Amino acid sequence: MKLSKILLPSRFKLIGWILLGPFAVLTYMAAFHEFTFDWLDVGTQSLSTAFNFEDKNLTNELAILGVLVSLFLVSFSREKEEDEFIQKIRLDSLLIACYGYFLINVLGTLIFFGLDYLSFIFFNMFTIPVLFLVRFHWVLMKERKNLDLAS
Amino acid sequence: MKNTLKIERARQNLTQQDLAEKVQVSRQTINSIEAGKYVPSTVLALKISRVFGVPVEILFELEEGD
User: Fold this and answer.
1) 3-state secondary structure (DSSP) of residue B23
2) Which of A19, A55, A120, B25 would you call most buried, defined as having the most Cβ atoms within 10 angstroms of its Cβ?
3) Taking the model in full, what pTM does it have?
4) pLDDT tens digit sequence for A15-43
5) H or E stretch including B66?
6) CA distances from A27 to A11, A30, A112, A115 (A)
7) Chain B: residue whose CA lies nearest to A148
8) What is the ipTM of this complex?
9) Beta carbons within 8 Å of A77's beta carbon, 6+ residues apart
10) CA B33 from centroid of its chain's CA atoms
11) CB contact under 8 A, B41 and A146
């Protein structure tokens, strides 16, 4: 079976894991504790003024981009021993993550209104990669456990 | 689909790791095939049969419902 060529080399996975922790904490701090870096303040000339937003600091944008990039690196880098079986688990996990995303969207639309709905949409950005990673690594872990039992 | 991988492997005195290395897959893949949890691609099935030197039909057999 031809293996997918659109995956990143496996070393990017480690970089992704290293970046994910700090950026996840930064996103949490920016979202819930209004934490900002002073050096990311933007002046009145910024685009945000044009759209009349109160937000004049780019900390949350940096945090979200950081989380998205690190989730991307972790999700779409090759395993050290990537083969057709691992790719099947990968594809199944992606499908399950998409099912989860749709289900959570439906539930969120029924449950949240107003500003809460906006927060829900914000966090729902991360649903697909997070569900994918949880399912993919859970199955890989189970397979490794089976292997230890078999040996 | 049934398979006789484990039997053939024992007959030829190969470990899962040996076979995995010969056909360039992970040991998990060989383990899952033997456990009947994963059906290999045609290419991998042919590679395995070449390692054992037997026709692919000896290693893999259709079951009812397949």
Assistant:
1) helix
2) B25
3) 0.86
4) 999 999 999 999 999 888 888 888 888 76
5) none
6) 24, 5, 21, 18
7) B28
8) 0.88
9) A7, A8, A9, A10, A11, A12, A13, A16
10) 6
11) no
User: In one letter, which amino acid is A6?
Assistant: I
Among chain A residues, the shortest Cα distance to B45 is held by A1
The helix or strand, by DSSP H or E, that contains position A143, with its residue range, turns out to be helix A127-150
Phi-psi domain of A44 (left: phi exceeds 0; alpha: psi -120 through 50; beta: other):
alpha
Q: In whole angstroms, give the CA distance from residue A86 to residue A136.
A: 9
Contact, A37 vs A22, CB < 8 A? Answer: no
Reported confidence tier of residue A45, pLDDT bands at 50, 70, 90: low
> Cα A38 to chain center, whole Å?
26
Torsion of CA B29, B32, B37, B39, to 10 degrees: 40
Q: How buried is B66 (Cβ within 10 angstroms: 0-12 exposed, 13-18 middle, 19+ buried)?
A: exposed
Q: Is there a contact between A147 and B28 if contact means CB atoms under 8 Å apart?
A: yes
Nearest to A147 among B31, B38, B41 (CB): B31
Nearest C-alpha of chain A: how many angstroms from B21?
A: 11
Q: What single-letter amino acid sits at A133?
A: L
- Contact at CB, B28 and A150, closer than 8 angstroms: no
Whole-angstrom distance, CA of residue A40 vs CA of residue A23: 15
